[in-house]
Each structure stands twice: as structure tokens, then as C-alpha cells.
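Preliminary data (for renewal application), adenosine monophosphate complex.
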Amino acid sequence: MSPIVGIDLGTTNSLIGAMDAGFPILLADADGERLTPSVVYFPQSGEPLVGRAAARMRAVDPAATVYSAKRFIGRRVGEDADDVSYALAGERGAPVRMRVREREFSPEEISALIVKKLRADAERALGGEVTRAVITVPAYFNDAQRQATKAAGELAGFTVERIVSEPTAAALAYGLDKLGDRAKIAVFDLGGGTFDISLLELSAGVFQVLATSGNTHLGGDDIDAALVAHLARAAGSVGEAASFPDAAVTSPRLREAAVTAKHRLSTESEAPIDLPFFSGDQNFSYLLTRAELEKLAQPIVEKTRAHCLRALADARLTPADLDDVILVGGQTRMPLVREFVRGIFQREPNVSQNPDEAVALGATIQAGILSGAVQNVVLLDVTPLSLGIETFGGLMNVIIPRNSTIPIKAGELFTNAVAGQSAMQITVLQGERELARDNWRLGEFELEFERAPKGQARVGVQFEIDANGILHVLARDTKTGAQKIVAMTSAVDVSDEAVEKMLEESLEHAFEDMSDRVFVEAKLKSDELLPAVRQALAQAGGELCADERTLIAQRVAEVESALATGAGQPLKRANTALDEATQRLATILIERAMRA
Ligand code: AMP
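Predicted structure:
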């Protein structure tokens, strides 16, 4: 079977990983680089360039170089600041498209080119075909954005096994799934272009997002821009070079030098910048200090504060409630950012993982869990379809509804439909249809109980899906305590196509399914009512007047004819009418019983 890879499809950079001998590893491209810039360049002719080669073209041919495509995924024209160097197409309100060299692309098509490159790198590194992937998305991505990301993976030839939230993946990479139940963590993610803060709670082995906030236009790029402007001002006032021409200060060389210096200042206190022949024969030399950089970065980093406070308030948490704070995104390597996080959350942030690789590593671990390469780690999952049992009349009785977070436990009490019954057949079903026969049968077994008159037995049925997605069905005779437990796999691992088909069918047949259910339920009632009325008439019919007897006979005939037509609503009405017509008969019987 083809391995499952984990992909961090980032705004600035993307990464891909795979499990190797039980450990997640990130795969390098042919140049030995693991970080692939999420950039696509379209040359005049020939195949698009992706990654580092494309990023280099950004300065040379900005109109033909698409970057930050992720910002536009699932978005419409006019929803977001369109401050990119390439053209956007489409009317206001239409899905965003990018226009490059007379051609138009959707954001997912651009993302697909990036994923395709990652896939080729992975195939080279692993020496075989790779067709299955887990892809991460920001926690705030809505359904349409998740679907679009999935589509990008599919366009690149992958079967997308799962879409995972980035903070959840990061928490997995930091090993926080090992924290105890109810542990709460903050994931502070400051990347090149975006900032996200997420508060998660670990509940029975599953991460739940309690709150998220962020800014899709805040990140290391803003610090770079501030630094470049600062250096340009400095360049304009150095010594004999009275001023460099504008082209020089916006040059890619200056930007590159600024970014390198910024990175250096994360570990050192000074970084020399030397650009020989920066403009004509003029050199540019400058000694940048960490203090200087921090002064420029401070207002940018400060913008994350309100989001952190908002997320805490939304989750109704205080910093003291948190068990850990983890850092994600390359920009969190900056000491100033770490100090800032320490200040807000009043604790030392966890820096045990590589912040720009944590999401990809987590996606890889998740891929490992899905492929079975990682065990004893929980599935971060919900039930894709409802689970239940078949009840009287062939109906589906849902016990765990679709989209419940696992692990989960739920149960219900059932009784016997037939007098003298001493066993109950438990048929476990999965699906969204009203009639048992239209759902999938996961398994069945029989529970014996003490023989009982109709409706007197009490059988409890409990469904429990554990953290590994295994369904344990327990049935117990509550009177004697006799019970049976049966485990069933495959309750969670259902292919997406199968789930989609089931959902489509349930929508398509919703109306007839509902009327089938109404009929079955009404028929169960008629099956009880008719013999009871016949018996009552035989016992006390003589005490009714002729008119009353005629009316009851007429109502009985109506129930019988509705039964024959199979129509639910008329049968339901006929049952009610018969019930009403026999009120006095019922009273006579009760009084007689009391006299006796
Ligand atoms: P990401 O989007 O997570 O790949 O983060 C990219 C951002 O992190 C860019 O703005 C980088 O300049 C920044 N970055 C990467 N390494 C460092 C570092 N050592 N110190 C400061 N910033 C860094």
C-alpha cells in the first residue's frame, strides 16, 4: 500500500513528510531543502516553476509570480485586501482567480501546482509512488475552504485522507496528546504572512478547538518591510553616498540582506550588512543591532496581543488555566516574540520543537496514525456517519449521531415487542437513512433476557467509540445484569466517497424515507390498537349503544384500509380517530375492572 504523507500547505512555505521506521521525518527536495516556498512562476512558455526557483522570479517578474495563494482560497473578490503584485480576475463577489499571462487560475489550481511539486519530491525521496496525503489548514478555515484545499490535493493526484487543523497538528508534533485529560494549550503561530492564535483542549485524547483568532495579513513579511525601509533610510544618509537611487533601495539584494540579518539577530546581538557596489560603484555597509531590529518589530508583534486576549476571553480562560503554550511559525524564533508570548501568557513558552516544521511533522504523525504506522495515539476525529440499531418495524434508531467527536459513549433502553420474547436481535447499523435496510449493516448479535410479557423487558444498548475509532456495542438485560459486548472496527474509517454517497442518498430520499418511517411507526400502533379494540368490543360491546358500535366499526375499517394502502399520514389520522371513538369503551372497561 502507498504510504500516506503529511503536508503543511503554508501561505509562505510548504513542507511534506512521511513516516520512516515509526518516526516522522520531513522530506527534502533535490537540492536538499525541506522548506518549499509556496510560490509559482509562469514563464513565457513552458512549465511553471514552483518553489525556490519561482520565489527568485518574484523580484524579476512580479506580475507572473503567484505567491500567498492560500490567502485567497475559498474567498471572493473584494473580501480581502488584494495587495499582491499579480493581477486578480473576476467581478466583485465572484470567487477569486489569478490572472497571469492571459490565463486565469483558481487559488486551488495554484496550490495544486505546489502540492504536485511536493509530491514529486516525496516520490524521489521515498523511491516510489505516493498517492495518499493528510493536508493541514488553519483552524478558522470554513467548510468551503477545507473542500478547496482538498480539491488542490486531488488535482495534484492525491487521495486526501484527511484535512487536519494546523494547531492540532502542531500540538501532536509537540507530543501534547500525552498531556492529561482536560489539558489546555495555546498555539501561537506567527509565520511569514499570517498570525493565528488557537486555544485547544485535550478531551479524552482528542484536541478540540476552544477559540481561535488571528490576522491573515500579519507576519514576518511586515518586519522585513519595516527593516528594509529603515535600511533604505540609513542608506540614503551614509557618508559620501548622499542618496542611493530608489531602484537601489527597493532592490531584492537589500531585501535579502535584511532578511538574513533578521534571522541572524535571533541568536546574535549584531549583524553586519555589506553590499558591495550596491549602487553603481557605491558600497553599502551597516551594522544592525538586535535592539534596533526590536524597536522596528515591536509595533508589529504588539498587534498579536489583542488577538490573544480575545481568544482567551472567547474560551473563558485565563493564562493560569493553560497547561502549555507552544510556538509555531518561523518568526517565533525571534527572541522579542518569545518574550512577548511569555508576557501575555505568563509562562515560559515551549520551544522544544522546530517552529517552522511542527505543523508538517504533526501532519505526518497524523498520516502515520491513519496508515497504522503509529499506534497508541488517538485519532483526531468525528464519526462520519450516524450509528444505531435496527428497531421494531425495520427502522433505524440512531444512538451516536453523525459528526460526534470521538471518543464518545451513548446509550438507550429498549423493550420487547412480542409477549413471551426471551431474546433480542441487535443489528448495528451505520448511515443516514430512516429504514434499517437502506443503511450499512456493521454486524449483529443476540442478547438473551428473562422471558417477559410484551413491553416489560428492559435491554440497555450502549455504543462506545474509543480513541482508536473502534465501536464497542454493549447490550445488557438490566434486570439480570446479563450482558454481551461486541467490538466492531470500521465505524470511523469509511472512505469519503462512501460517506458522500450515503449523504447524497439520504437527501435525495429524505421525503419518502420520512413517510416510510411515519407509516412504520403508525403501523406498529395499529398492530397494537386493532386486537385491543376487538377484545374490548367482545368484553363490553353490549354496554355501548348501536350508534357507538357502528362508529367504532367504521373507524376500524378506516384503519384497515389505510394499512392496506401503505400511506403513513392517513394511517396516523385513522389511528387517532379510532382511539377517540373507543374512549367510552375504554372507560367502561376500566370501571368494570375497578368494580371487580
Ligand atoms: P513560516 O511562514 O512559518 O515559514 O515563517 C516564515 C517567517 O519566519 C519569515 O518571515 C522568516 O523570515 C521568519 N523566520 C525564519 N527563521 C527565522 C529566524 N531564525 N529568526 C527570525 N525570523 C525567522
